[in-house]
Amino acid sequence: xxxxxxxxxxxxxxxxxxxxxxxxxxxxxxxxxxxxxxxxxxxxxxxxxxxxxxxxxxxxxxxxxxxxxxxxxxxxxxxxxxxxxxxxxxxxxxxxxxxxxxxxxxxxxxxxxxxxxxxxxxxxxxxxxxxxxxxxxxxxxxxxxxxxxxxxxxxxxxxxxxxxxxxxxxxxxxxxxxxxxxxxxxxxxxxxxxxxxxxxxxxxxxxxxxxxxxxxxxxxxxxxxxxxxxxxxxxxxxxxxxxxxxxxxxxxxxxxxxxxxxxxxxxxxxxxxxxxxxxxxxxxxxxxxxxxxxxxxxxxxxxxxxxxxxxxxxxxxxxxxxxxxxxxxxxxxxxxxxxxxxxxxxxxxxxxxxxxxxxxxxxxxxxxxxxxxxxxxxxxxxxxxxxxxxxxxxxxxxxxxxxxxxxxxxxxxxxxxxxxxxxxxxxxxxxxxxxxxxxxxxxxxxxxxxxxxxxxxxxxxxxxxxxxxxxxxxxxxxxxxxxxxxxxxxxxxxxxxxxxxxxxxxxxxxxxxxxxxxxxxxxxxxxxxxxxxxxxxxxxxxxxxxxxxxxxxxxxxxxxxxxxxxxxxxxxxxxxxxxxxxxxxxxxxxxxxxxxxxxxxxxxxxxxxxxxxxxxxxxxxxxxxxxxxxxxxxxxxxxxxxxxxxxxxxxxxxxxxxxxxxxxxxxxxxxxxxxxxxxxxxxxxxxxxxxxxxxxxxxxxxxxxxxxxxxxxxxxxxxxxxxxxxxxxxxxxxxxxxxxxxxxxxxxxxxxxxxxxxxxxxxxxxxxxxxxxxxxxxxxxxxxxxxxxxxxxxxxxxxxxxxxxxxxxxxxxxxxxxxxxxxxxxxxxxxxxxxxxxxxxxxxxxxxxxxxxxxxxxxxxxxxxxxxxxxxxxxxxxxxxxxxxxxxxxxxxxxxxxxxxxxxxxxxxxxxxxxxxxxxxxxxxxxxxxxxxxxxxxxxxxxxxxxxxxxxxxxxxxxxxxxxxxxxxxxxxxxxxxxxxxxxxxxxxxxxxxxxxxxxxxxxxxxxxxxxxxxxxxxxxxxxxxxxxxxxxxxxxxxxxxxxxxxxxxxxxxxxxxxxxxxxxxxxxxxxxxxxxxxxxxxxxxxxxxxxxxxxxxxxxxxxxxxxxxxxxxxxxxxxxxxxxxxxxxxxxxxxxxxxxxxxxxxxxxxxxxxxxxxxxxxxxxxxxxxxxxxxxxxxxxxxxxxxxxxxxxxxxxxxxxxxxxxxxxxxxxxxxxxxxxxxxxxxxxxxxxxxxxxxxxxxxxxxxxxxxxxxxxxxxxxxxxxxxxxxxxxxxxxxxxxxxxxxxxxxxxxxxxxxxxxxxxxxxxxxxxxxxxxxxxxxxxxxxxxxxxxxxxxxxxxxxxxxxxxxxxxxxxxxxxxxxxxxxxxxxxxxxxxxxxxxxxxxxxxxxxxxxxxxxxxxxxxxxxxxxxxxxxxxxxxxxxxxxxxxxxxxxxxxxxxxxxxxxxxxxxxxxxxxxxxxxxxxxxxxxxxxxxxxxxxxxxxxxxxxxxxxxxxxxxxxxxxxxxxxxxxxxxxxxxxxxxxxxxxxxxxxxxxxxxxxxxxxxxxxxxxxxxxxxxxxxxxxxxxxxxxxxxxxxxxxxxxxxxxxxxxxxxxxxxxxxxxxxxxxxxxxxxxxxxxxxxxxxxxxxxxxxxxxxxxxxxxxxxxxxxxxxxxxxxxxxxxxxxxxxxxxxxxxxxxxxxxxxxxxxxxxxxxxxxxxxxxxxxxxxxxxxxxxxxxxxxxxxxxxxxxxxxxxxxxxxxxxxxxxxxxxxxxxxxxxxxxxxxxxxxxxxxxxxxxxxxxxxxxxxxxxxxxxxxxxxxxxxxxxxxxxxxxxxxxxxxxxxxxxxxxxxxxxxxxxxxxxxxxxxxxxxxxxxxxxxxxxxxxxxxxxxxxxxxxxxxxxxxxxxxxxxxxxxxxxxxxxxxxxxxxxxxxxxxxxxxxxxxxxxxxxxxxxxxxxxxxxxxxxxxxxxxxxxxxxxxxxxxxxxxxxxxxxxxxxxxxxxxxxxxxxxxxxxxxxxxxxxxxxxxxxxxxxxxxxxxxxxxxxx
Length: 2033
Fold this sequence. Notes:
Blueprint: E1 2-3, E2 7-13, H1 15-19, E3 25-31, H2 45-49, E4 64-71, E5 77-93, E6 109-123, H3 128-144, H4 150-160, E7 162-163, E8 171-173, E9 181-183, H5 197-205, H6 207-218, E10 222-227, H7 230-243, E11 252-254, E12 271-276, H8 280-283, E13 289-293, E14 298-300, H9 314-326, H10 348-366, E15 374-378, E16 384-387, H11 389-396, H12 402-409, H13 411-420, E17 424-426, H14 429-446, H15 450-466, H16 498-515, E18 525-527, H17 541-545, H18 548-562, H19 566-579, H20 583-598, E19 603-604, H21 606-621, H22 631-639, E20 643-647, E21 650-653, H23 667-686, H24 690-701, H25 706-717, H26 736-746, H27 752-781, H28 830-848, H29 853-882, E22 903-912, E23 933-940, E24 943-950, E25 960-965, E26 969-975, E27 990-995, E28 999-1005, H30 1011-1025, H31 1034-1037, H32 1049-1072, H33 1089-1097, H34 1124-1130, H35 1135-1142, H36 1145-1153, E29 1158-1159, E30 1172-1175, E31 1191-1194, H37 1199-1205, E32 1216-1220, E33 1227-1231, H38 1237-1242, H39 1254-1272, H40 1293-1303, E34 1332-1333, H41 1335-1341, H42 1394-1401, E35 1407-1411, E36 1427-1431, H43 1437-1451, H44 1463-1470, ...
Parallel strand pairs: 10-12, 10-13, 11-12, 19-20, 29-30, 33-37, 35-36, 35-37
Antiparallel strand pairs: 1-7, 2-3, 2-6, 4-5, 5-6, 8-9, 13-14, 15-16, 17-18, 20-21, 22-23, 22-28, 23-24, 24-25, 26-27, 27-28, 30-31, 32-33, 34-43, 38-41, 39-40, 41-42, 44-45, 44-50, 45-46, 46-47, 48-49, 49-50
């Protein structure tokens, strides 16, 4: 027996330290004074007596009791039971000396305070109630003056009362105060006692929360409780630790953590701790700590903590059992006639034991079979047992289960194995439950009612363990008089006599030593039951899948190999390789090979050896590095046995060819394999004695195990048969643990000599096995070629990636750069690495196995010699292996090349690996297995080409080719390649090459390719990809012609830089109003001063690179200032040059549009004959470097005016006319965005007085220019006279509005309080709306009942285009009904606000400017009459780049999509389709404004060369049918993309200088938009889809010069624009492919235009022609649908042709097809030959042409056969008569067109209204807020800074008008933009009573003065108030989980079927909705269990949860019970169906 308590301590308040400014406690007395030898005193006890600090109290407080836990240095826990009471003290304060006249006089100030004092018992036993009683008796004796000395009480507690041992009898005692007490020890000390602590924890937190905390604690997370009660903290911590039984918590355990030690919570190690709730704010910032509020019942799991999930079905079974215990009404809840409720309540103690029983069963089920995975290493002198984790996980199928992995890797489980692993020990309840768990589960599966029966049975055992004595003992404990603590006159606690206490302690100890006769008779050791074998626990379904046929094929293949039937083995070898993906097949393979080793057939021929090695490699490849199935361990003896003879004395073993697997580098594998083999040897060592031990045990026990032991003995005596069976199950045999149990049992009966002999035998066994494994590791780790380094990693696409993409979100092109080439190499000496690895292994296993130090030392000395000897042996093997005849490999196929295309590097033999595309692999998509393929990779001056044949012998007759232009390479990275089953070797190195034409090459180099050749290939590829200039690209070098002489002009410019710099710079600076002295350190690149300043001071909207900072021309040194005189004298001295330039298709289009004629001077007669002219103001590119030489401007604008106002736009790209509507005469203009007007003033702060008026002059010129454009719009003259109609023929804005009224819902976004760029934010907030308009328009708007925001994507930043405002509030829509605004007298209230200005802007104007939001802030509308500035949303270039990279990964993934990912999900996440939608919507708005409204439109976005070009070009394709022809589309591209300076070289990274910017597919995006339009209007385009793909391919291929250089100036300087063009020769059409070298000779060194190539092909074949083109049936104006559901993924991104590579290199594709065709099988004329077409292999268009293509081919053949001259296909086509339209289809087509126009116009109106709201919000809000202080009880965010605004400590500010929220510190920075709107006095007018306006009413109101009115958003809702009560479908209270902190709040919900909304209010009486859910966005509503939600309210009904999934988010609700929840679900589903 041991002491009940070790120390008694009296701790009091330290008044001495108080005087020095600190308050703490100190130990007043301690008994005994000296430390016990077996239990030293723990210092720092005073901190735990007052965990929140020692503080004096001004009031008397009741005594408190709690128990703290202290942990000593040996990790032993000591319990500190503390009873604290308060004593009165007198405080004396002394004033400062300086305030005293007489320093000797002290004036004391007395005030009574109460100081805490604690009585503490420190003990090692868990008897909390007994400690409370003992301390209570001492306190009672002190308070009530009991007739007993307190020294006697303390002495008796410490010396006379002892704790009985576990399993002992009840111990009754008294401490001498007339008390009677008893101690009842538990039956088993390993089982924790909890009383009712576990049940209390479940009451506090709930089932799901406790399970979550339990899982987190088992997986070594940090757990922190907080509560107002200290004893609750201790009980909760103890309950959590007790639930882990039989595991023991071994980390930091501090149930009550004192405040001074709060920093301990920052420790990196796991812990379970508790703090007082006063520290709630301090612990909130802990990032990785799970915080549990015991008082509130909540669990906060940080975002960085991943909640581990207990595997199914264990979790579901546990939750179901817990509900049966805690919610017994669940069992009868659905009964029609439930029984009457029982009046007897279940006591908490019983619930506690039943809950613990459930968790014991949980762990027993999880750990089922663990004893089968124990490995016995030593029995004597002490047993040492390890756990084979990999085998356990593999058998149970939990290899990837994160929860089990963490549990098995934790310290608790290691302790569990060491304590419970021995087979002969004291057993407890868990061992019994573990042994019978599987039988119980089978019974419960058959009869579920037995579950609760078994749980109660186990709970009774737990109860009996705690209370073994069924008869309770009535204790007598004196207690103090009630209220005695409040006595006024109470003496202080006396000082105890130490001598007296020590005497009593010594006397008690001496008496106990004499009378200690209690022994622990229950702690008896026995053999631990083994429980079920692990092999019977795993899932057997996988075994069934591997049918006998597959295993029979494997056995036959092995037999063929060893019978030397190699040809037969090779036939079935692919099937065997596929079958080895099964675990059972791999195990069967090792067994089959083992049988042949036993037959002495290990020496093999070369072919046999190769096939066996391939089988071994394949088996290892399909296994993981953990070797959970034991395959690698089984292969170890095989690899060291199979061998072949290379020459005399040189033998090569199989291990030299199976080394490159990750498992051999895993030290845990080697340890597990070593331990398994040692266990086998130990078993064999004692097996002969086993029967004798069995008989001894039978005689002694005669037990219930007799029958099983007899069976075991019978099985042991059965002779082992060597049947060759592939079954993984073996007969049961005597286990090593059973042998160890017998040996441990008889150990004490053996003599000392016998014991020492056993120890020596085991030592020798372990030592010899360690030597054996050291040699094995050397065999497997030392490579055959020792010059190579160790590589034990598998295939990993992300390994060694050289992508330089950073995580920075800076607005820079370099962020998205994908270029870069990995230069890293591997190397190193392998011998030291192997020695270190073996030494570590030897140290680990020998130390664990208790091997003597001498043996360990000899092993260390032996290892280097073994390695050196093996290396020497391998040198001869390696030398002879290289002399073997090489394996026959297929011939390298040479690809077909262009004329002029040269091979840069000859083919390197490689293997083309399969990527993430399933086509071609022959798995799920069917068809032959084309990949992987073996062949060679070639690098030419134009392409990277792979050509080879499939590795699959069934498809090896086909040719595989995958190629792409080298200029399209965007990313190259190294990768480690794994062993491929189809190959006969291990591939060490590979490359992954990704192209921006959606192609991917994953190649692995053959072993014959040396590393130097690989590195050379990479460097040459890098050089070809990044030429110094474009003239080094294939477009020029492919013709083998020297570079143009103009390349030397760079040198000339450098020579003349000094000559003209001064004159030119000063002249241009004078024109710009700037006279700044350039620094001598200025770079050699100059730009116009206005551009430079504008770029540096104006925030960028599209791109980060500026004109002054980007890489410039590829010919010259990029000087942006051009000397006009020099250029004029050289280039434009002859006016014919400009006329020649005007003949270009892009310029000639101006003549077609009637936009005037060429104006060579600025002083020509500008009569009214032509309103526009083609100006040559930029002929020298001095006004704008990136604009074309000829520009269309109004006739009345002079060139001098243009030069003055051009600088008001970025890059001087001023508005120019690019298209004119033929009917409405409206103009389409393009420009860059404006410079800020304020910035223009800053630009001239250093200028002289003469140029002080530069800004005003430029601004005035700009205003004049806009007025001229307005005047040039014919509609401006009749703005006020148009008629209102619903017809599309009227060019009025009202038709747009009516389209919204008649066509459906219209989106009106809400204004923002915080004005940010819409393209960068995803925010929305509440806004206020009001209208301004005439009476007629007011009535017109009355028909707009509900205007709702359409559904938009909300993923990533792509949702930013439709959401405006604060990030902290959900998006809202403003429903608008203008009928609300009508007044009885026909007038409207007057006020000025956001929507009034916005709707005022919807009046028809002559000129709309679609621009950026930022540029609209400084625009004064009064300066631009009849103009409207509309801010629009658009995607910036950085967004396009990021989206394109995601699109490439989605369409061409490098690895297959995971189970949670899919192709469509990846496409959605890329955000590519929303970008196309945005372009279509902006272009559609321009189309409607030009065509329907008749207003001119200016597109001025970013720098004017990216998104502006996309929108303008798309709008012209929609408006003008000419641009839908081949010639028109060419003219459009040359005009908008080439002439207006889209930066092709920069965006496509064509040169080395542009690589850092990253690829930006702006032009590809435009082609995709045209593809979308083509899909919807296939009859309206002359060209087909192949034409668009051809352009998409070749605009980045660098084969043609057309899409090179950045602007027209650079192309002019290169000599491309004024070249002489020769007519085409008709006789060339007969040449093969139509294009030879002589075609391009006319261009000399200027390259080849793509248009010539297209024209020649178009004349020869209808390759680019759309046979569905019908000019008569097409619509003049196209209005495509722009919603995402109508978008299609372009098949250009998805298709490939493995037969010949991309079909867009037409000549190469035709040559490859002709090479692949069998020349012996010629087609007979008129006969069709059947051919199998594979979608991913063949090109359908070429292999199987459509009817028209085939007919033209037949005509050409007939003409050749008849000897006729070939005629053009167009001649035959034009003769055909198109069929007439079906008259019955006209009404249907008209209806479809009308619907399309309505949808299209509604989108336009949405853009206009939203833009006006943005513009007015940026200009008009100037109303201050009225803030009031408000304490927020829920977490909200400050609308200004975005930080949390919550709690009474930090109250916030709240605007009483608009609801704006902010911190008090943020008030001064809040913008003055309050959206307060006045209320409406009369809203009685119903919308139904207002009819549509008549024409007279509408027109008569235009002259009236506008009257303004205001409404609030809540009043907009109230427009339905008169009928709102009639449409309340359902209402009631529900709990809703918030989106921010996941808190649950009760809200009043109203389901409105009229508005189709689910609204919620704070309460039933609240009239203002706090939010709503649009039911049109609801996708599903379903009930869910509580396990799917977190933080549920306390005592919530588990069946009341249901969730609602919308397109925006997932909502969780909680009803009062399941009935109410199902009622809500039915009502909601009824509304959404």
